[in-house]
Design brief:
heterodimer; A: alpha/beta; 6-stranded mixed beta sheet; 4-stranded antiparallel beta sheet; 13 helices; 17 strands; 34% helix; globular; B: alpha+beta; two-stranded antiparallel ribbon; two-stranded antiparallel sheet; 5 helices; 12% strand
């Protein structure tokens, strides 16, 4: 039995996971149209490489990675590109972003797939393949996986597969582990090869006994693999907290897990790494849990770009549904009905969308009015990052951003445990997001000002230099004229 | 008596020499206060303050010749930071200075541009690309929105375009939520929305 470690705080919200694990993963039918955003991952937006009217095949590249941290985007099915324009996406701002609209032709015609044997390629080649296959972290952050595999000189001792899935309602990783455990383990072997890592730990919370059994069976023939059952606690599936639970190591503030010899991938990411390398299939679909206020909660294998409302319609939302949540109830993003501010219900499913919850006032009653902070420090007791949320709240609402930063605001993982326990119902995480984004904006402005100062100083220097050059030229010409004059005078003599 | 005087004189000479040496060795080039003021100014180089750039304005503030409320692009926050740094009271905008405007970048209507290079000469940060009798264009990422290129253009082909909010520059807003107010004799009841400042 492996020694498990505890992280600070954590909460035990009701799981609500049983509803969507009764039936096997279903395939969502081809939707009437797909809207594929070019910015589904952390980093730079992919560059469109198709034109309006082009016929594309399933798996054809439509967005080329642009910049170091970026990822490719592909056509999820065969069909015709009917438009490339700004469309609504799932973003808290509710602002539109560049999307390609694809009208499926129903034939599901694939491009030529090129499976590779990973042992015959260098890790650098495989990383490039994953980048071009659009593989990103499927746990929710959608960080390009190839970047996480570029470790430089660091030595990775432990590769962690994250199957904790700690957030209520979400069961997509649970179902994936139950049904496709062998593929996940193959993907983990590929990741281990690329990282040159030693042991592989698969962390799964104890509320998923079927997934644990399936994974244990899948690793039976594998060397140095271990499935570790961890206690169910929120947010035990957050990367830093999971690393702490499994290894006892703490990722220092401002550092990455690789700095302490650990790297962490979601189980669904390992699965898509396997599909990308062993089958040559880019990331075109993902498992999405549809649950909450619906008649039949279910997990669907869903094509990227499927409109969320078409997907929820498959599960028959109940009449009192008043909006959806993309993600879980703790960290997810509310999608509103039309005309309300913020993202709308018809946005497309993206690579980061692990769950769609149909919301109603019955399931998620509107929060009561907030009362003043009474400094009870209940938030500090549950904070998994061991911060002082009440102080951070105080500084954020007073716009004292420097102090908030000094109190490690950027170590906050926005898990929402503080807001969950706050007896005054203060939306604490909103204040932290506000403060973080103000600080980022100020940093951007400062950089722009510094660059403008440099350019202005060079501008002044250039003008001065041009003036000097002109004066020198003039002087040289005068000297030449004088010399010529004097020679003329001499010849006159 | 005499020895005491000699000792004191010797100490004075030694310390004087140390101070004199330090004054030469550790001499600070330029005025550090000017640099700190300049760091607060937005570096638009627009000249709306009446000085030919941010550095000259910073020099004037440091010398006590200029008020701190003459920089519209810096906004009220800029005035507050200057007041903090200099230990003076906050002063609102007023008098002959322009009101702050939303940030914008210059835009050249390329079909009208005749390639006269006048705007290139006016740009304080070299953010306009082009050559004589060739079409010019703004390098939007480097444009500070100073508007200095607008006036010299003989064909009026330069306009200022406000920077719109998009996914990359969008910021989380100050949280707006209902707060409970408690009045004498009443229990908890929903109150007004917390104002965003």
């Amino acid at each position: 039995m492996r020694t498990l470690y505890k992280f600070h705080g954590g909460i035990h919200p009701p799981g609500n996971k049983a509803q969507s694990t009764q039936l096997a993963i279903a395939h969502a039918p081809l939707p009437s149209k797909l809207a594929v955003p070019f910015h589904q991952h952390a980093g730079e937006t992919a560059k469109p490489v198709v034109q309006i009217g082009d016929h594309v095949l399933k798996g054809q590249l439509i967005g080329m990675p642009d910049g170091f941290i970026s990822s490719a985007v592909h056509a999820p099915t065969s069909g015709t590109i009917s438009s490339i324009d700004m469309q609504h996406i799932a973003h808290p701002s509710g602002l539109p972003n560049l999307c390609a609209t694809l009208i499926p032709d129903g034939r599901e015609e694939w491009i030529e797939r090129k499976p590779v044997d990973y042992r015959e390629h260098s890790p650098a080649d495989l990383q490039q393949l994953l980048r071009m296959a659009g593989v990103v972290g499927l746990g929710g952050a959608a960080f390009p996986s190839d970047i996480k595999l570029r470790i430089g000189k660091q030595k990775i001792k432990t590769l962690i597969l994250n199957g904790a899935e700690c957030e209520p309602y979400i069961t997509c990783d649970d179902m994936l582990m139950r049904e496709r455990a062998a593929e996940i383990v193959h993907g983990a072997e590929m990741l281990r090869y690329m990282l040159d890592a030693g042991e592989v730990l698969i962390g799964i919370e104890d509320n998923k006994p079927e997934a644990i059994a399936a994974m244990q069976q899948a690793i039976a023939d594998c060397n140095n693999f271990e499935v570790v059952t961890i206690p169910a606690i929120y947010p035990g599936g957050s990367a830093k907290q999971l690393i702490r639970t499994l290894t006892g190591l703490e990722v220092p503030s401002g550092k990455l897990p690789t700095d302490i010899g650990v790297q962490c991938f979601n189980v669904a990411t390992a699965y898509s790494v396997y599909r990308a390398l062993a089958h040559g299939e880019p990331l075109l679909s993902r498992i999405v849990t549809v649950t909450g206020n619906v008649r039949k909660a279910l997990n669907y294998e869903t094509l990227i770009g499927t409109p969320v409302d078409e997907l929820v319609a498959l599960s028959e939302a109940l009449p009192d549904t008043n909006g959806y949540i993309m993600g879980g109830p703790m960290m997810g993003m509310p999608l509103h009905a039309m005309n309300a501010p913020g993202p709308a219900v018809h946005v497309p499913v993206v690579k980061a969308a692990n769950c769609i919850i149909a919301a109603s006032d019955r399931l998620f009653p509107p929060p009561p009015p907030a009362l003043p902070c009474i400094r009870c420090t209940r938030c500090a007791e549950v904070c998994p990052a061991d911060l002082q949320p009440q102080d951070l709240y105080w500084f954020a609402q007073a716009r004292e951003f420097g102090k908030a930063q000094a109190f490690s605001l950027f170590d906050c993982i926005e898990c929402g445990a503080c807001s969950y326990v706050c007896p005054s119902h203060i939306p604490l995480v909103q204040y932290y997001r506000f403060a973080k984004s103000e600080i980022h904006a100020r940093e951007r402005e400062k950089q722009a000002a510094d660059s403008a100062r440099e350019r202005h100083e060079f501008h002044l220097y250039r003008i001065e230099r041009e003036k000097q050059e002109k004066a020198e030229k003039l002087a040289a010409r005068e000297r030449a004229a004088q010399a010529a004059k004097s020679t003329v005078e001499h010849s006159d003599d | 008596m005499l020895s005491a005087l000699l000792v004191m004189a010797a100490i004075a000479i030694v310390l004087g020499a140390v101070l004199g040496f330090a004054a030469i060795k550790f001499r600070v080039e330029g005025n550090p206060l000017v640099d700190r003021i300049d760091a607060i100014l937005p570096q638009t180089q627009c000249g709306q303050c009446g000085y030919p750039g941010c550095k000259p304005y910073a020099t004037a503030i440091a010398a006590g010749e200029a008020d701190i409320n003459r920089c519209p692009p810096g906004g009220e926050e800029g005035i507050r930071k200057l007041a903090d740094l200099l230990g003076v009271d906050f002063k609102p905008f007023g008098g002959d200075t322009n009101a702050p405007k939303p940030r914008s970048v210059a835009f050249i209507d390329e079909s009208t541009c005749i390639g006269c290079t006048l705007c290139i000469q006016a740009c304080p940060v070299d953010a306009i690309a082009g050559a004589a009798k060739q079409m010019h264009t703004i390098i939007a990422a480097e444009c500070t929105g100073c508007e200095l290129c607008v006036a010299p253009c003989p064909v009026d082909c330069i306009s200022m375009v406000a920077i719109e909010e998009n996914i990359t520059n969008w910021k989380w807003k100050y949280p707006l939520h209902t707060v409970a107010v408690r009045r004498a004799g009443s229990t908890r009841q929903p109150g007004k929305a917390r104002p965003a400042q």
